[in-house]
Amino acid sequence: MKKFVLLLLLVCTCATFSWAQNNKRITVTGTVIDGDDKSPIGQATVQLLSLPDSAMVVGNVTNNSGVFSIAARPGKYLLKISFVGYLTQEKPLQLTASKPTVNIGTVTLPTDAIMLGEAVIVAEAPQVTVSEDTIGFNASAYRTPEGAMLEELVKKLPGAEIDEDGNIKINGKEVKKIMVDGKEFFGGDVKTGLKNLPVDMVDKLKTYDKKSDLARITGIDDGEEETVLDLTVKKGMNQGWFGNVDLAGGTEDRYLGRAMINRFYDKTQFSVIGSANNVNDQGFSGGGGGPRWGRNNGLNATKMLGANFATETEKLEMGGSVRYNYRDADRITRGNTEDFTRNSYTNTNGHLRNKTSDFNADFRMEWKPDSMTNIIFRPNVSYSKSDNANQNESGTFNEDPFKYIGNPNDFLNFDDIDSSDDPLKDIRVNATNSNSLTKSKNLSANATLQLNRKLNNKGRNITFRGTFGYGDNDNDQYSESATRYYLFPETPDSVLWRNQYITTPAKNYNYTAQFTYSEPIARATFLQFSYRFQYKYNKSDKSTFDLNEFPWGIGDMLPEDYETAYVDSLSKDAKYQYFNHDISLGLRLIREKYQLNAGVSLQPQNTKLSYKKGNFMTDTTRTVFNFAPNLDFRYRFSKVSQLRVTYRGRSSQPSMENLLPIVDNSNPLNIRVGNPGLKPSFAHTMRAFYNTYNAERQRGMMAHLMFTATQDAISNKTTYDDQTGGKTITPENINGNWNAFGMFGFNTALKNKKFTINSFSRVNFQNQVDFDDDKETQTSLRNRTTNLVLAENFNGAYRNNWFEFSLNGSIEYNWEKNKLHSDKDQNPYTFSYGASTNITLPWQMNLSTNIANQCRRGYTDSSLNRNEVIWNAQIAQNLLKGAATVSFEMYDILKQQSSITRTLSAQSRSVTEYNSINSYCMVHFLYRLNIFGSKAARDKVMNREGGFGGRGFGGPGGGHGRRPF
Q1: Of the candidates 288, 292, 291, which has an alpha carbon nearest to the alpha carbon of residue 850?
Q2: 3-state secondary structure 247-276
Q3: I need a labelling partner for 136 at 20 to 30 A (CA). Which of 298, 410, 605, 790 fits?
């Protein structure tokens, strides 16, 4: 019996050992590079196929450095590596338990000559790819009209939003910089990149959170992380000259001209760009079903000229740019505001003419004299000059003027009021007509120097970082205004005249010195220490002169003896000094599956203010102590699936002037009073971000959650004067302000990869608390306004080598609730649906068109409840073997697009309509310069999506070729 038991135990032990050996996973690693220029290929698909049935066992994609890692049990496999535009590579592999790691070395993917010649299977390029915390987009998977700039491509990316100011958000995160092949393009300026980088040069886009220079080198989280959009230039274009010239003219006196020339050679880039237009540079909208209310606010003419360079060697990396911008804005507005707190209504008309010119120059150098030392130097300088002329008419009413007349804005000018039977005379509180002219000049210069030294190869390092900034600003304001008060009991229709000249020169400078030290205390575990001292100095002198007694008007020279009209009570001198010590302690853990950064920052601050206004003089010193905790946790489920959770607490101090018990009555309708009892506010911000990707199915999912709550938020307590319609504002602390945001994105290709589906859902809830002035009790009450937003964007598309068709739809629903004024509640919503198509016709002709019905419902102002059918179209003909394109473009063909913006707060709701020219036609001539290092590279670029030199309409099919290693 004992022998039988021993035999049974021996058999079980051997079986267990054998199962463990066979169940153990073997890691296969390698690097994938381009066969032409030997650059790494990111997002290439790597698969292990079982033999002999070729069923996929495991798959992954390469990271941005072309590196991959996959794991499988021992056995016989076929390793398959593929990417659109390259020949697929296959290699048999025998994995054994005796060798736990297999490195196959470098795999070279040759260029697919069939795809270069005919470009017929671009529909198989995955729209979205994910690798760790990087989200990638293949430019070839999105069709844009001929000659389109980067903005048109970004509009099509799942989860991307571009507002009317040119700011980009991708998956709810604002993009702060645009880069080209990992290098800053014009200092990373987003608007310059959107308007001047042609889609034709872009191979891929990727968005990720780029660490600051300090965090990247030392690993110390300084909270200065930026979301960037990084473009990869098409293969072969980094070995020659390329560029384009685009000239266009159209109806409504519209014009556009721009040119760009680039010289890319290995790791060196040089670009010169120039442009001029008066079309708000909106580009061809190219599809997308989301509503774009208020896209063109005013008429804008811009001119720009700039140069950018970047170069890199083994030890030295340099880059910089210079640019000049000129902008002439002509903006006419008609607006109305409903004030919840006093049941008052304000209507305004405005005409703004602003001319601004500015010059910017920046430089960046990173030097690695040896393997242990890193030096970074970043200087920049800017100068701007502006002339701002503004005409304004406003009126305040104690009842809704729209109940009396269809357009009360026609009765705001004094001439119209006096020359007619005023239909609003019974509800008027005040009316103001004003003109102003502001001239300003601003000079600023900044520099940052960072020196890092590694003390060993285990993570011990020390860093010094210093910054310096200087600013010199001059501001001259000329104004004339008349305000009529209609409710004074003794003197109704009283008029306050104000003719003033205000000059405000200001100078400031600041510097910081920071030391950091990182000490390894265990395997991949670091203790991090940082000390930073910051000093700021600001001196501002405001001088006000009353010109009522002089024969003077806007545009006239100042009277010779205007200085005798100095108004001491409306002038002020202020000198501000700020001393801040920031002591930070943090812990950093790096493990195979997760990373953790946690720390706390202690900030003793000392502020000094010397202030004089009229008879009030003070020298005030304030000492406070802030703390700011932070947490950053990342868990990697796999190379393509990651969860990230962050928390950051930040304290904000009220301005020194808000703490002074003084009255600022320079605007009698908006008087401000300081509050010495203000406390610092503290904001808690938590974010969670998750993404995953299936390379085989080209399916990606991402989710983003954010919660922000502010303790002792600084709000405004407002009291009203019923006779004048003016208000007195005092800053007060208040609790209860918080905001929650959620986003979920899903995209997938269907079975044959020619059909794609994108869904982008978001929810946002705002809880805004403010003070409400109660008329009857003359006390301030807490009021709460909540706004819940539910939104969904959906896109489905079909595309092959010559045809693309997409259906777009979106809806955004709002629930707006006001606690004390429930009669002001409303549930407005907007929705949009449409279609777009891009067709490559025979004879190198291309047709693009899109149409969308944009709808608004649920607004108490019935004029906002409307439909707008927006239809745009373009037909383009390629000439000179694809080197030139002539196109005819039509915008807002049905002339239905409006320009309206709307804002909501706890105190008021506002609607503003702008002037714009949305409907016009243009003829473009575009010429491309392409001189690359090889004929294959030239062909690959010129055969963009079968439209330049490919067979296009009705061309033969093609596919991936296969070639053994």
Answers
A1: 288
A2: EEEECCCCEEEEEEEEEEECCEEEEEEEEE
A3: 790
**Nearest residue to 409 via CA among 484, 369, 351:** 351
With a CB cutoff of 8 Å and minimum separation 6, the contacts of 104 are: 28, 29, 30, 79, 91, 93
> Within the chain, what is the greatest distance between any pair of CA atoms?
124
pLDDT value at residue 694: 79
Phi-psi map region of 843: left, alpha, beta (phi>0 left; psi -120 to 50 alpha): left
pTM of the model: 0.75
Residues 73/26, Cβ–Cβ less than 8 Å: yes
**Which tokens is 352 given?**
């703004």
Amino acid occupying residue 176: K
**Encoding tokens for residue 680?**
């610092």
3-state secondary structure of 767: strand
Instruction: State the Cα–Cα distance between residues 430 and 65, nearest whole angstrom.
Output: 66
Distance of CA 500 to the CA centre of its chain: 39
> 630 vs 216, 395, 584, CA distance in Å?
17, 48, 10
Instruction: Indicate the burial class of 584 (C-beta count within 10 angstroms; 0-12, 13-18, 19 or more).
Output: buried
- Which ranges of the chain have pLDDT less than 50? 1-2, 4-5, 8-9, 11-13, 15-22, 113-123, 282-294, 933-934, 938, 941-965
Quick one: tokens of 481?
A: 């205004």
Q: What angle (nearest 5°) sits at the alpha carbon of residue 440, between those of residues 434 and 441?
A: 175
**CB neighbour list of residue 834: distance below 8 Å, 6 or more residues apart:** 287, 289, 807, 808, 809, 850, 851, 852, 853, 870
- From 704, 715, 807, select the one nearest 746 (Cα to Cα): 704
- Quote the CA–CA distance of 718 and 729 in Å, as a whole number: 5
Residue 495: exposed, middle, or buried by beta-carbon count in 10 A (0-12, 13-18, 19+)?
Answer: exposed
Question: What are the pLDDT digits (tens) for 133-166?
Answer: 788 888 877 777 777 788 888 877 877 777 666 6
3-state SS record for 356-387: EEEEEEEEEEEEEEECCEEEEEEEEEEEEEEE
pLDDT at 37: 64
**Helix and strand tally (H, E) in the chain?**
7, 49
The Cα–Cα gap between 52 and 718 comes to 79
Tokens (6 digits) for 250: 């159209």
732 strand-pairing partners:
715
Residue type, 347: N
Contact assessment for residue 374 and residue 452, using Cβ atoms and an 8 Å cutoff: yes
The 3-state secondary structure of 825-858 reads CECCEEEEEEEEEEEEECCCEEEEEEEEEEEEEC
- The DSSP H or E segment spanning 664 is strand 663-664
Nearest to 824 by CA among 469, 338, 487: 338
Please check whether residue 192 is in contact with residue 231, taking contact to mean a CB–CB distance below 8 angstroms. no
Which residue bears the tokens 């002539």? 886
**Per the structure block, which two tokens stand in for 128?**
């979205």
Q: What is the pLDDT of residues 379-419, one digit of tens each?
A: 999 999 999 999 999 999 989 998 898 889 999 999 888 87
Q: Which helix (H) or strand (E) holds 194?
A: helix 190-196
What residues contact 256, with CB distance under 8 A and at least 6 apart? 246, 247, 248, 249, 275, 276, 277, 278, 279, 281, 922, 924
**Buried/exposed code over 548-563 (b: 16+ C-beta within 10 A; e: otherwise):** eebebeeeeeebeeee
Residue 512 CA to residue 467 CA, distance in Å, equals 5
